[in-house]
Amino acid sequence: MDTVISARDVGRVICQTCGNVALISEVRCPRCAHRLSSRDTLSEQKVWAWLIAGLIAYLPANTYPMLLTTQNFRTSESTIIGGVIDLFEHGSYAVAIIVFVASILIPVGKFVVIGYLAILTRKRHRTDPHRLLRYYEVVEFIGRWSMIDVFVVAILTALVQFDVLASINPGIAAVCFALSVVFTMLAAQSFDSRQIWDRLEDGFRHG
Amino acid sequence: MDEQDLPEPERMPTRSSRISWVWLVPLVALAISVMVVAQTYRNQGPVIIVSLPSASGVEAGETPLQFRDVEVGLVEDVTFGTGLQSVEAHIRVDSEIAQYIDTDAQFWLVEPQVTTRGVSGLSTVLSGVYLEGSWDAEIGFPADRFVALENTPLSRPGEVGTRIVLRSRDGGQLAAGAPVLYNGIEVGRLGQAELSEDGTLITMDAFIEAPHDARLTTNTRFWDISGISIDLNTSGLSVNFESLASLVEGGVAFEALVTGGEGIEGGEVFDVYSSRADAQRSVFEAPVDQALELAVILPADNLRLVLGALVRYGGIRVGEVTNIVGYTDPRDPDAGVQALVNFTLSPTRIGLPDVATNENLIEALERRVRNGLRVRVASEGLLGTTLILEVFEDEDHDGRILDTALIELPLVPATAANVTEASADLDAIVSRVAALPIEDLMDAAIDTLDGITALASGEDIRALPANVNELVAEVRAIVAAEEIGQALTDLSSAAEALETLVSGISESEGLSTTLTALENSETIIANVQTFTAGLPGILTSVEDLVGELDASPVTNAAASAERVLQRLETILSAEAAADLPGSLNDSLEELAGLLTELREGGAAESLTSTLASADGAFASLEAAAGQVPTIVTRLNSLVASLQGLAADYDDGSAVYGELRAAINDISQAADAFRSLARAIERNPNSLITGR
Description:
Chain A is α+β, with helices and mostly antiparallel strands. Helices cover 54% and strands 11% of the residues of chain A. The radius of gyration of chain A is 22 Å and the shape is elongated.
């Protein structure tokens, strides 16, 4: 069982911009003059605020139609779930899975993971900080890929415009979904990963 | 590095008690969400249920409800009605419009329809059917259950116009939605045709849009313009159809064929006539108002009565035939099939009292039938080809009565048809015409014409006009010659002069005194003696002249002229003369006129009278000559006296000279008279010719 010594423990602070290690008493980075802070004290609030905003946006993103598809005079609306089911019924399993993963699995996973991290780091814990960090990194990396849905809608809208014969228009859900993705990404960014170690109890298991 | 070297870490707080501005984001998002939800909830109207016979394309979540082509609701659910008798569409209606959906609201399903008038509801082919609702702008008693109409309604509430009922005998051509035309302009449409209760008539609603409905009056007539009308007459073949749509789908047109009439309020019943001509006719044959339904049984063989045939009573239209069916008398099934003819009868027009109830009317009719009211088939029209039903009073009726028991309708007894068999009549006419000896007549006519031609082409006949013309010209020349008239005048004046002279001679008493005075004048006496000696000769000559005149051709000329006139007249009055050429005719006419003139103008007569007066003159002359011896005696005595006188006055006296001159004058006069007499003697014609 080894203990992790944080920079703060040794009276240092790392510049978030240039990576320079400075004394904790420094207010600005001696190298890049960026404002130094050992911890983002508002991080937790920000995470929760963005996360809740993301959730609020995510609800209409799923209940309202994502795509307005006009085909031979008939306009049909499809929500994300409905679109996935349609694709699945049409046999496009791969696409259905991609859409499902990108639009449902990832956003929901992000909410869960960020929420988990935020809750976990509030109090003392003994979870393996490396694993948590890996979660965090995955969430932060993968978060932007959720926008794939929005991009698909944007591209389809741009490409398929044959008036009454076939045309696709974005629904209100597309905007909500984009907002939700943006909010969750901001939530992920707001998370100060250094907090993972702040309340780490001794005897955590290395994972 | 030793742990001790490190500065004591400052325990800095990991979280701040400050509140981050980021919280604004979820708050705003929440606020927006709440607003949207509230808005949505507030806008969500009530659910109404519309019963349809079948869903036919109605889908939950897809099928909209439209009002004036604006979507005002959406079918949320489709369920079955009680007993699976109908399909119920649950429609979520927009809240703003929901209040207007009251008990008066109507709903119907709009489906694509391909009709002769075109394709309607085309958008529904691709977008699916939709429900259309119709309601007025007044908020009434709210309702949430409706039964959809089977057809698109004729007019929507709020559409201005007049709704009327059209009645037709044959609705085969008239389809719902068919146009109502006024002067070729579509001003309304027909509703669904429905059979009347007894099945003899078809009624349909019609809707005339404003402002054209103002043209509807009680005198308006409707007629069917379905199909093509082909008219073949002397001016050629005319094919006419009002519009292509009406060709297939039918339609009616209307017009006020007579002026006047009162405006209508809507709901009035109009008859649809089969053609404009019929409609026009109907104007003058006032329609039968309160009609009594009657029936008559007629022999079915050769019954050429048609539906709609008129029923007349004394020439007045009193009703029409409404139905003709085969009928077997249950009392006498062996009689075979007869025709049961239903017809309407206006009770007032046959003189039945204007009473309210049908029973009373039937009673009154029964009395009339007892007194001989009968029905028979009669013919009318030019050739008697149009058959009508005639109600008439049979003088020697057989006492049958109105039969109200046999069938539902009162049965009026019938008598034998009063049909002029037009074909038979025509046959008779044709055979009579055929029997006419037209060919013989023609042969005779041809012969006659041939004869006339031969006659006319004969040389003599051809020469005749020329000869006649010549003759006429000659006669004309003679008559027209001035000499004739002149001669007559001369003759007349000569005779008068002679008369005057002679009378002067006879009356001259002065002369005798003078003569007495001259009695003794030997010379005078000798002269007078010479004169006296010559006088009888003159008288003879004059007498001869008169005789000659009597025998002269003048009389003959007059007579022969008379004869010529007569002959010419005969020629002129002869029928053959009418056939002479026009010029000849004219000449003859002129001649006739001339002759008439001649006769009337008294040319011949005056000639005769002139001759007569000449005769008279000669007679006086003769008489005068009778006195001559006296004169001579007197003259002698005159001469003697003159001698005595001369003895008194001697040769040189002036009186003697004057006397000599007087005697010379007398002598000259006598000479002149003599020369005249001689001239007449030499040339009696000069009397006529004046030369």
